[in-house]
């Protein structure tokens, strides 16, 4: 029994001593875990960076021993550059300054850990500042073609991209560049041009920069002597019979054509090898300028040359009365919607047919449309005051003449569907000095004035045409498509 007690006591004493040793050991040792010293780095062997606004390089270090990072270049800085504590994962951010030089540069980051043999080296290559200088060819290439040259100075690899086939014969379309940006000469060979003057672009491109310039080659020359860059001929007036002669410079014999869609109002002819005559045969009846085309072609057929188109611009024959908020003009169609303003013709009306073509009419209440034609001296005039649901009057009169008038009353259903109003003014009889005035609406003769109206146009230069919308609240409006005057002698 005594022996058993003795053994138990000895075991208790041994246990207490073991506990005391362990406690002392944990208090005295470093916080580093037991085991071999180790460092792990997930950085690549090398990185590349842009010259301007380079992106940061980021990697991680995991270590159970203190470590340091040293950069051999001031422009390349790692943060942090040493461990703050062991047994932790640290994110390393490497920042770089802009490279303002013309050469690439290299920085090396050396990573060391205490108690660990060897080092880790990370290489960072930063590109040089982009330097691309192109001295373009800026002369006109002759019609017969030939070789032209330009120079490229670049410290980066480059390539040339042509925009069109006739510029594709290039002796070298790419290059590696050089750090000193020494100029290289490039040769482009152009074929002969049998067609019109043509132009294309060459683009010199590096990874981050490009330069584009235009090469123009002469061809068939048919151009305006006064302004070779222009292809627009503006007519001197808005009426019929307006003529304009322009001088033409050409290196081929030429002819002129008027497309069918413009032959109703436009003529063109060659007066000589250097003179072109353009004539308008009708007055512009739109509320905006109208533009037609003529085509200048070579007399001999040349493959690939379809001619040069010239625009012929004729001004509108009307001027607008009142503020712009009282009308709207559709520039595409030439139609005008009037709410409370008037229109006056730039030409003088005499005897003949005057036709108003409408897209729509919308008369409400007591609003009305006024048509008024009068000689400049004011001796005689005739007019139409056109109402809906109220008496309209077609009137002619003047000093020394008997007034004559016809009236009619139409409903809004009748007035608001009208598409065409015509005024016909002719001699009552051949050789007579008396006139007959007729009002024709949508092809129907509505009123005739023939009360011995003396012809005022025998001595007067003619009458401007005036028409307008009379409305108090803009509730009424009409849209006129065109005004056409066909004079008679």
From TrEMBL:
PROSITE patterns: PROKAR_LIPOPROTEIN. It comes from the Bacteria. Transmembrane segments: none annotated. Residues 65-127, 170-218 form the BACON domain. Keywords: Signal. Residues 1-22 form the signal peptide. This is BACON domain-containing protein. It comes from Bacteroides faecis.
């Amino acid at each position: 029994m005594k022996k058993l007690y003795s053994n138990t006591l000895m075991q208790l004493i041994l246990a207490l001593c073991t506990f005391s040793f362990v406690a002392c050991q944990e208090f005295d040792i470093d916080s580093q875990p037991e085991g071999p010293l180790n460092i792990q780095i997930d950085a690549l062997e090398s990185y590349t960076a842009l010259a301007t606004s380079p992106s940061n390089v980021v990697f991680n270090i995991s270590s159970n021993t203190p470590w340091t990072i040293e950069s051999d270049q001031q422009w390349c800085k790692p943060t942090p550059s040493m461990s703050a504590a062991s047994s932790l994962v640290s994110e390393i951010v490497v920042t770089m300054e802009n490279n303002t030089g013309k050469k690439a540069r290299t920085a090396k980051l050396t990573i060391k850990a205490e108690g660990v043999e060897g080092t880790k080296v990370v290489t960072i290559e930063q590109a040089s500042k982009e330097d691309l200088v192109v001295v373009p060819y800026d002369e006109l290439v002759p019609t017969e073609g030939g070789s032209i040259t330009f120079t490229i100075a670049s410290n980066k690899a480059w390539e040339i991209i042509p925009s069109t086939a006739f510029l594709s014969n290039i002796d070298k379309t790419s290059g590696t560049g050089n750090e000193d940006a020494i100029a290289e000469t490039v040769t482009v060979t152009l074929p002969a041009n049998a067609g019109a003057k043509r132009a294309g672009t060459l683009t010199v491109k590096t990874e981050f920069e490009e330069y584009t310039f235009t090469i123009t080659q002469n061809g068939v020359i048919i151009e305006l002597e006064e302004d070779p860059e222009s292809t627009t001929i503006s007519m001197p007036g808005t009426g019929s019979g307006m003529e304009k002669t322009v001088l033409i410079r050409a290196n081929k014999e030429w002819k002129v054509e008027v497309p069918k869609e413009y032959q109703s109002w436009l003529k063109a002819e060659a007066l000589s090898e250097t003179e072109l005559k353009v004539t308008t045969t009708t007055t512009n009846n739109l509320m905006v300028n109208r533009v037609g085309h003529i085509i200048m072609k070579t007399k001999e057929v040349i493959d690939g040359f379809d001619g040069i188109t010239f625009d012929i611009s004729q001004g509108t024959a009307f001027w607008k009365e009142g503020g712009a908020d009282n009308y709207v003009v559709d520039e595409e169609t030439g139609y005008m919607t009037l709410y409370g303003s008037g229109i006056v013709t730039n030409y003088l009306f005499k005897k003949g047919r005057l036709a108003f073509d409408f897209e729509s009419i919308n008369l409400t209440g007591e609003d009305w449309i006024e048509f008024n034609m009068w000689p400049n001296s004011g001796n005689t005039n005739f007019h139409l005051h056109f109402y809906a649901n109220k008496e309209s009057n077609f009137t002619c009169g003047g000093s020394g003449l008997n007034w004559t008038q016809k009236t009619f009353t139409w409903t809004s259903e009748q007035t608001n569907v009208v598409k065409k109003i015509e005024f016909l003014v002719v001699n009552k009889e051949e050789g007579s000095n008396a006139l007959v005035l007729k009002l024709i609406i949508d092809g129907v003769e509505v009123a005739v004035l023939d009360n011995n109206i003396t012809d005022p146009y025998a001595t007067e230069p003619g009458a401007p045409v005036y028409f307008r919308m009379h409305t108090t609240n803009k509730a009424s409006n009409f849209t006129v498509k065109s005004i056409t005057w066909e004079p008679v002698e």
